[in-house]
Amino acid sequence: MTKEYQFPENFLWGGATAANQLEGGYLEGGRGLSIADVMPGGKIRGSFRNNPDFHFEMDTTKYVYPNHQAIDHYHRYKEDIALFAEMGFKTYRMSISWSRIFPNGDETEPNEEGLAFYDKVFDELNKYGIEPLVTLIHNEIPLHLVKEYGGWKNRELLTFFERYVKAVFNRYKDKVKYWLTFNEINSALRLPLYSLGFIPKNDEQKEQLVFQGLHHQLLASALAVKLGHEMIPGSQVGCMLLYAPIYPYNCHPENVLYAKEESRLFNYFCGDVHVFGEYPRFINRYFKEHNVKLDIQEGDLALLKEGKVDFISFSYYMSCTEKIIGDQKERVLGNMIGGFKNPFLKASEWGWEIDPHGLRISLNDLYDRYRLPLFIVENGLGANDTIEEDGTIQDDYRIDYLREHITAMAESIEDGVELMGYTSWGPIDIVSAGTGEMSKRYGFIYVDKNDDGSGTFNRMKKKSFDWYKNVIATNGREL
């Protein structure tokens, strides 16, 4: 007999995207360049992300830049939102491109055309009764702030960020209730380029610069929470973490301790500051051992206390297995996490290990630690999808993946976890952040665009479209 699960009546089902991965129109409407615009497509992208000699310039004679067109959502947002509404979305997680609002990032006045574009998007969502969940920064820093100011290692970005946040909060205060500050803020510990906007020259320099940049972002996040509460009464502002439970490879005590220490740093450092409004005790030893000396100015610690988040959102794609004792071979990659191959798990075509039980573990661990409402805002399976001769796309593998993870969510709710909602990544095929590929597809909706940029951009429903539609219609009772 199939178990029937009970989700809360007001559970927020939906999907999640990022502006730089779906909008396109990269020079339209007064938009300036962002860091995502200079990242080439294909596996070559990986060689740029950690190259300190990369000067953030484009070379269209050698590379393709898929983010420039993305999936042309900038012109097709009405069509896409109508499809989301057909699936029954209760919420849609999206991000605002900072470069659309302040093209260089350091202007004193916002770009009206950029503001007007998101007005239209929010109005379209409202037409269908879809609640927007808006990320302020999703791997998208105005390129000028990267090249001229050095990204988030420069404290001056706090001033520019505050101006940006005030502009969008003031403009959309009657249209957006749920906000997120920085996407996967802790990802900077593994890959500083996308979130912090710089590439350290060496490992010794990396620790100091990354944690100083994170200090500035944590202050910026606290400031956004404070402004949200002041400017938008009744709003809720959350943080967003990249979360992966870290398993010890075996029960050797040193491996258990190593996994625990890795988890505290990667999974909980930023979360602790967001939720408790102060730096956790364990980071002091880490700073001492890695010669990190933060420049903390007067008022910083008070601001962290003032700007504690209302809820915690996170992405979950895979777990991680670590060891420090034993053979150091068989490492795997996936979502900047890595780790050692777990012999009990299967993996996707891109090597991301599939672990739905890890999601239940994550939800319980996060709720036990923070006792705040949780929101899963990214989870999904990237795969090569094939159009059959009859024109259908039979993505049963995606349905199986999502069914197992939604089951884990339901079990965690029975465990006593307070879960607000779930937005699958991404509900429509978009450009991969990691590789710039279109062939790594996540969506319920197929977009006819290829890795080389060719294609009609036509939208097609996959088999998973109707499956997810039924999941939402039955509030998770039928999986």
Automatic annotation (TrEMBL):
Keywords, comma-separated and alphabetical: Glycosidase, Hydrolase
PROSITE patterns given in the database record: GLYCOSYL_HYDROL_F1_1, GLYCOSYL_HYDROL_F1_2
Family listed: Belongs to the glycosyl hydrolase 1 family.
Highest taxon listed in the record's lineage: Bacteria
Protein species of origin: Lysinibacillus piscis
Protein name, UniProt field: Glycosyl hydrolase
Residues the record marks as active site: E378 (nucleophile)
Pfam families assigned to the protein according to its UniProt record, in alphabetical order: Glyco_hydro_1
GO molecular function, one term: hydrolase activity
